[in-house]
């Protein structure tokens, strides 16, 4: 999946996938669903584009209905996700809104259950990434907004979801390679991703007695709208070339990890993190 990425930049977060050149690869044509998630219902935050969109489409190909959460600015991307999921013969619920709002976090769960009658898989994936090359450039507003979006929302959505989850159900949190390595120009983002990793481990222990599994995925450089909306056009052109595989990954190369963690194949896996990162060793 070698991809040549030209310089490009988007001025507003979150980025818009429809404007990316080239377009991310969302699912391999050769990926064959085998009913691993047949009859399941999944709620995916940040499900309109990138990794979240790929997870939605892979889940649908495996037999699940999905609800996705996104901001109103991302409506074009969300509609593409809708088309892709429906092309797999599954249902999808679109839920636009702001995950920094506690009431909306609770509403996303209730609307999902109201539509589908149940909830089996929660994917906490939504994220904000702001670049600050010098730490003193960071504003308090940046700090609060990043933490509210990236980690507070996970606590709130998960708490609302728990009354609907039962034995055999699954929670999957998107962390990042930056949780293990840090990144000088992404101090808030890296810190939230470290918090997500710790949250995943703590929650897995808390819910083990209920037989609800909690795991994480820590992607490396994956080609999504988050990147050109966060860094300069010059940096985008070099994106992913610093990992051992010398290229960025595609959402299609990450989403199968979520399928595995959501399915019975991972019935003895909880409190763990999968690392699709192009070969970077993190020992975590």
UniProtKB/TrEMBL annotation:
SUPFAM superfamilies: NAD(P)-binding Rossmann-fold domains. Its EC number is 1.1.1.100. GO terms for molecular function: 3-oxoacyl-[acyl-carrier-protein] reductase (NADPH) activity. Pfam families: adh_short_C2. Keywords: Oxidoreductase. Belongs to the short-chain dehydrogenases/reductases (SDR) family. This is Short-chain dehydrogenase/reductase SDR. It comes from Fibrisoma limi BUZ 3. The lineage of its organism: Bacteria, Pseudomonadati, Bacteroidota, Cytophagia, Cytophagales.
